[in-house]
Amino acid sequence: FPCGVIRNFSIIAHIDHGKSTLADRLLELTGTISTTLNGANKQVLDKLKVERERGITVKAQTASMVHDFEGLTYLLNLIDTPGHVDFSWEVSRSMAACQGALLLVDATQGVQAQSLSVFHTARERGLKIIPVLNKVGDWGLHEAESLIKSSKIDLPAAQPERITAQMQSTFGIDPEDVIAISAKTGANVGAVLKAIIERIPPPPGSPSEKLKAYLFDSSYDRYRGVISLVSIQDGVLHKGDKIASCYTHKKYDITDVGIMYPEEISTGQLLAGQVGYIACNMKQSSEAHIGDTLHRAGVPVEPMPGFQPAKAMVYAGIFPVDSNDFIKLEESIKRLSLTDRSITVQRESSTALGQGCRLGFLGTLHMDVFRQRLEDEYDANIIITAPTVPYKVIYKDRIAMVSNPTDFPDVGDVREKVKEVQEPVVKATIIVPEDYLGEIMDLCFSHRAEELDHSYLDATSATEASARVILTCVMPLSEIVTDFFDKLKSRSSGYASFDYEDAGYKQNNLAKMIFLLNNKPVDALALIVHRDAEQDIGKVWVNKLHKVIPRQLFEVPIQAAVGKKVVARKTLSALRADVTAGLYGGHYERKMKHLENQKEAKRKMKRVGTVDLPQEAFFEIMSSK
Ligand code: GDP
Ligand code: MG
Predict the structure, then answer these.
(1) Which residues take part in binding GTP (predicted)?
(2) What ipTM, to 2 d.p.?
(3) Can you tell me the distance from the alpha carbon of 304 to that of 538, in angstroms, rounded to the nearest whole number?
(4) Residue 595 in 3-state DSSP?
């Protein structure tokens, strides 16, 4: 395949707007996968169990298709991208290997927060954008335009005209360029293929130049080691070639090379313009540096502009429910993080929870997904602590990044040794129907939002439906890693969409809150809080603890403290009765059974100071919001 007949593109969209469904249809239409039940959602590219279950795409996948069009045979390389805000790093990474993008917008939902962010990323990268309006024609589709005009739509809530106008006003897209489709039924998807060939430029580069390959993704295979996805910028890459990395200067032998069709198909070579996989004798995935440029050993080239490494924004401790499982858990975490390069891992130990690992994630969904993968793929029984963001503590003589509340200086130390404490802030973008604006602004303020601003998404000529508003503000990241997103969804009846980007650090009045059971601190429960909110937060957590901690043989005071100051307190009353007291008559078997049950329960207890805490209590404390 010479460059002229190659097209590299990705599908970009807000979550649930239909990327994976459209990818399936494109693969079917080109005969890459077989067509079975029309409308069935195969989601071929969503390979992970967690992706199928949650219907979200976590890891970007690549697939090649072969398509005949007007007498020529084309090679179309599709790179599917995740839609969730936590994975925007993956989105921009996959875009770097493309010349064009299908911007998919759900006709029932309209432009959403991530539609905006992915559009801007694609435009910054200079990609040709093909606007596609999805969920429009489920039946009897003849022409996209007549369909839009007659409003023949597959979902009653679809508003193709209005959404097309939105795309015009927010993205400057010519309504003539919009392709209306139904990814579900496949209606008009042929027009998308045609547009990919006609509108997206072929990749630049030439096979006769020196080899230059851009490494944009890597995964780890238990048997073959590191598998990398590359986009060949120039030259040809053959099996058996000796290559070198611009980043590490290490040399490797290519042991296998091929395309994703949609599974790996060995081709023996990749030419300029193509996208495919390589296997070489790379032992650790840390050697596959995302954004690296590979070249023929001894024939150096100018490296491509690299990538900022992914930044961990949310940290949490992961501990085994049974402390004997630590080695197994650590092994599983290590193996799983090989397939997800954006996770950072460190050891951590806690007096309450024992030996564990402290992990850094891109966001809370990322954390959730990792937890589920750990449970699914490694059968792990784990406790995950409350998430923390990385704080910057500026001491008089040094700066420390603190991603574990245990390491945060106490109030006294803050007063004496610390100049200021800064927390990460983000620029948040929320799109919401006007009716909910007041409610959502209140929510933002209660989460310490500043610099609130808003503008209208729809043209001012108000339609019968309520206009949509784009709300922007600056918020502490710590405010959105807990339950902000859930609240936003429920307070807007599910209509609000949300995205955020890094906005640096900001000084704030923050302190460490600790919890004491029977006057002994429980390290795994420590939190960093804003001083204005310490009483409220203390109360919420003390109540939560009061609810889940079983009563003991003695009274247990539960306290939340900031420095020496107790900000909230509640007492757990003592358990009086003997467990066997009710079993009068002393039926021996019954009594034994009861004592056994009690022993079983004891085994699962963690002793915190003098208080016995069942692991489920920790689990409940950590997972309740
Ligand atoms: P993604 O998150 O962008 O990958 O979205 P999916 O492809 O997983 O689709 C999200 C949901 O929308 C799924 O339940 C699909 O079945 C549904 N969907 C996708 N395309 C269409 C369409 O054209 N019409 C209708 N009615 N539903 C669709
Ligand atoms: Mg998907």
Answers:
(1) 13-20, 80-84
(2) 0.99
(3) 50
(4) helix
